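Support case: user asked for a sample of complex input and structure output to validate their parser. Sending the pair below.
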Amino acid sequence: MKATVYVTIKENVLDPKGSAVQGALHSLGFDEVSKVRIGKYLELDLDTNDRAAAEIRIKEMCELLLANTVIEDYRYELA
Amino acid sequence: MKFAVLVFPGSNCDKDMYNAVRDSIQQPADYIWHTATDLSAYDCILVPGGFSFGDYLRCGAIARFSPVMKALVEAVERGTYVLGVCNGFQILTEAGLLPGALLRNNTLKFRCHQTALIVENNNTPFTTAYSQNEEITIPIAHGEGNYYVDDATLEEMQANNQIIFRYKKGANPNGSTDDIAGVSNKRGNVIGMMPHPERAVHELLGSSDGRRMFYSILNTWREKHGEATVVR
């Protein structure tokens, strides 16, 4: 089973990298971009076919290591 | 008094920390590799700066799970003094020993220069040799030193006097919440800061204001344990 995890900086926390990329897009003429947020994308291969169990484990991984929940949100997909 | 300097793969301020202890207060210090599991022999544990585990994923996120961190938590519970500087500060927040988290500098630049700090609380084991509200000069060197804490936690920290250092007004180099440069835990035996006191222990380095942090630690410890042995 494959898990994809997305970690993003929380909405109310400044994302300096996103702001820099937004500035670059504006200077290239893409003025319609009102906000850019940069996050992390992780692919995990799991040795299990038990979806419910995998979900519990992935949540644990996110809370413990993959995201710092003081400043980051996470979501995941299982396929 | 016995000092431990933790060493993670990627630590690079461990020698500075070790030399600062030896040169400023002449106390014995040991380098402790991150796989160690017992810190009971030490009175103060120093978590140095650097790029532990390459700072992959997030600064300090992987170091937080090194075996030595379990021993560190036990030492904190015993009341041992712990000082984390720069990457050490990041590791302590990741471990939940200190509130908040460190983000990329709002300037997007790696900032490496002297900063003016205000001593906000001189009533901690680490700051007794400073005056309250004194301005001191301590250098910074970081790309991710933008201290973030939510409003509710900030209020609680203010009520508990957990803000130890602030950047001087108008001189915040990284966008830190409320100009915060260093914080402590509730009990006051753990502090973390982005500026490097160990790099400010001699006028030759541009400032000797960091020396007094090491004097503070030794003096507070002596008051509790009697005179410490001087190592020559």
